[in-house]
Design a protein that fits this description.
single chain; alpha+beta; CNF1/YfiH-like putative cysteine hydrolases; six-stranded mixed β-sheet; four-stranded antiparallel β-sheet; 6 helices
C-alpha cells in the first residue's frame, strides 16, 4: 500500500519455523500528525481516530487478517483467540495466542517490552505485553503455560523496549523483583540514592528461563534513545504506539 516500505518494519531475526510469521512496526509509514507521527496504531492515546483507522488499515493490508487488538492493562490475562465468539470490543488481556492459521496476535507498546513466542513445530504462537508490572506479576509465565506445549520447545523474541541505560525505577520496584527471585539483583544498577537503572530485557530472560524457555532472541533496542525509529512514552509522554505481531501462515 502507498506510503509503506519494507524499512518501516522490523522483521525478527530468529530461527522460527517456516510457518511462523512476525512483524514489528516502527513510527514510520503512516498518516498521523505530530506528536503521533506517523504510524501510530494506538486508539487510546489522543490521536485522530480517522488517522488511527487509516494506519490500522495500512497494516492490515500486509497481513492475512486484521489483528485482534487487546485492551492492555499491565496484567497477566492471556486470551486464546480461537475462543473468541465476538470482536465487538477488544478483549481485556495482555497476551494473546493462536493455533489456527491466519489469526494475528498483536500487542501495542511504546517502552514496554513486546515478547513474541512460538514453538519449534509451528503449532502455536503468542504475543505478550510485558511492562515491569506485567513481568513482575507473571505475564510471561502465564503465556508460556497457556500455550500448552512443552516449554523446552518454545522460543521467544524480545522486541523494541526501553533500554537498560534509560529505565529508571525506584527502590520499591527493585525490591519487588528481588523478593520474587534473587537472580533479579543482576538486572538493576544503582543510579543514585533511591533510584536504579533496570534491565527489562534481562528480567524477561530470567522469567522465561524460570518457565523453561531457554531459546531467546532479540533485545538490545532502546525506544528512548532511538527517537527517529521508535515511539517512547518515557521520552515524550504524548506519543503513538507500535505493534508487535505474530501469526501462523496458511
Amino acid at each position: 500500500m502507498s506510503g509503506v516500505r519494507a524499512d518501516h518494519f522490523l522483521r525478527p531475526d530468529w530461527p522460527a519455523p517456516p510457518g511462523v510469521r512476525a512483524l514489528i512496526t516502527t513510527r514510520h509509514g503512516g498518516v498521523s500528525a505530530a506528536p503521533y507521527a506517523s504510524f501510530n496504531l494506538g486508539s487510546h492515546v489522543g490521536d485522530d481516530p480517522a488517522r488511527v483507522g487509516a494506519n490500522r488499515a495500512r497494516l492490515a493490508s500486509l497481513l492475512p487478517a486484521a489483528p485482534c487488538w487487546l485492551e492492555q492493562v499491565h496484567g497477566t490475562d492471556v486470551i486464546d483467540l480461537g475462543t473468541l465468539t465476538s470482536v465487538a470490543a477488544p478483549p481485556r488481556a495482555d497476551a494473546a495466542l493462536a493455533r489456527r492459521a491466519g489469526v494475528v496476535c498483536a500487542v501495542l507498546t511504546a517502552d514496554c517490552l513486546p515478547v513474541l513466542l512460538c514453538d519449534a513445530a509451528g503449532s502455536v504462537v503468542a504475543a505478550a505485553h510485558a511492562g515491569w508490572r506485567g513481568l513482575l506479576a507473571g505475564v510471561l509465565e502465564r503465556t508460556v503455560a497457556a500455550m500448552a506445549v512443552p516449554a523446552g520447545s518454545l522460543m521467544a523474541y524480545l522486541g523494541p523496549a526501553i533500554g537498560p541505560e534509560s529505565f529508571e525505577v525506584g527502590d520499591e520496584v527493585r525490591a519487588a523483583f528481588v523478593a520474587a527471585g534473587e537472580e533479579a539483583e543482576a538486572a538493576f544498577k544503582p543510579l543514585h540514592p533511591g533510584k536504579w537503572l533496570a534491565n527489562i530485557y534481562l528480567l524477561a530472560h530470567q522469567r522465561l528461563a524460570r518457565s523453561g524457555v531457554d531459546v531467546v532472541h532479540g533485545g538490545g533496542f532502546c525506544t528512548v534513545h532511538e527517537a527517529e525509529r521508535y515511539f517512547s512514552y518515557r521520552r515524550d509522554g504524548t506519543t503513538g504506539r507500535m505493534a508487535s505481531l505474530i501469526w501462523l501462515a496458511g
